[in-house]
Specification:
541 residues; MetI-like fold; two-stranded parallel ribbon; 25 helices; 2 strands
Length: 541
Amino acid sequence: MLRNVNIWFLSSLFISLIVIIPIITVFSSFFENTTNYFEILKNTFLFEYTVNSVCLLVSVLLLTFIIGTGSAYLVSFYEFPLSNFFKWALILSFAVPPYIYAYSLTAFFENYGTAYTILKNLFGEANYNQYIPKFDGMLGSILSISFSLFGYVYILTRASFLYQSQNLIDLGKNLGFTNLKSFYSIILPSARPAIVAGLSLVAMETLAEFGAVDFFSINTLTTGIYNSWIAFDDLAFANQLSFFLLLFIFALFILENLSRKKAKYHFNSRGGFKRKEKKRLSKNKSFLAFTFCFLIFFVSFLFPLCQMLYWTIKFPENLYDLDILNLFLNTIYLVFLSSVILILFSLISNYGNRVSNNKILNIFSTLSISGYAIPGVILAVAFITFIAWFDENIIKTFGFLSIKKLFFGSILGLVLVYFIRFYSLAFNGIKSGYEKINIYVDESAYLLGYSKRKTFTNIHVPFLRNSLLFVGILISLEIIRELPITLILRPFNFETFATTAYISASEDLLEAAAVPSLFLILIAALFIMITSKYILRDNNE
């Protein structure tokens, strides 16, 4: 046991503890007394909240798996028209938060909305509303969340597909497998860690989603959490509902680990790595592959972009009072600072887990990645609750100055809660890359006289370069569109595109919300386009 207590072990443990403390605050509220709201909810809508949450989660996971895995497979293994374009264009969906997608979906398909206007201008006056489908309620929530989040599955799965050796495909051919059988018998199982990592992120984001489900008036556990705190001022019960969400996430993790057992997903280096060859599809199959990818690209990105642009052009007066430069600088500042900190500490934590192989550390690491399942507003309030308790019971006891000003309404507090919220994103993304590094690589390095630090810096970090860049873009896009944490903890008069859009939308001014929403989408899209050359290049590029 003492042998495992080293600098890497202590570093990983310290990082995990930082993330766990606010989560423990949520746990500790489980046994606190609540208001009568609990009895009211239990006897009325609690069952509905649970059923809706499960239906939403299952539907979103299924749809994101089909879209994300299918598109990743097509652009990774085949050549067809614009396949090189789609390999980075499909991740532009990250630029559109679910709540903005929900606004776009409603605005386009509602009575006398954008679809009605288009048909009227093309064909003249008529009762087009009876022919225009309505995407609201549960269906609207599923579509908004799925097309906004499928990129988690796509980007991680595609990264895994790129590292698959041609030897695997040749093995399937030698066994007489068809392309379909090779896909689900060889290719898909070998990418399982990446797929599971992506779906886990989708699950936690779905369970924590508030904006889209609230907009469509779908009662879920998350809306119950918000209502219990905001409407009924019952933070204890809000934390208790969050506790149930965490239990659900832990159950998913346990089931996955049990199902995986001792399966290995790295390739045997002794057999060598044969660069994967992309297959050119026939004319008909090329058309189908192109249509599939284009529809996903159009629905997930072009559609909401055009809707926000339409509103901006139609109501140009909303641009007059918008300080675009200040909003841009504030947003980028938060992105850069938070991304660097998250990547650095998640990388250290992953390596600490790898070299320590300590059960206690593994438990703490599992607990630490659960912060992503907690709605941002609850995590922010739990952070405030802990800092207030620590300041009152520890800091003042020893006669030190109050630390509240360091964390409340400050960049430090905001970045720290970002770290807690998105630690799972960084940790799982890097862990997926580590799954591809055979432990024999470490042992060989030690035999050559490499220390753990040198192995980490000279071997692991260069190998994980693409994974780190993947994680960086995912974190950046999450922070760009993060809303509740920023609203609660941001400094006075410190606004981002996300908070500005929310303030307009909360005042029922969706047209005004379109302007910051449009800039949010464009900045995120520009960031993706600039970095895609480096993070999405194929092995032969």
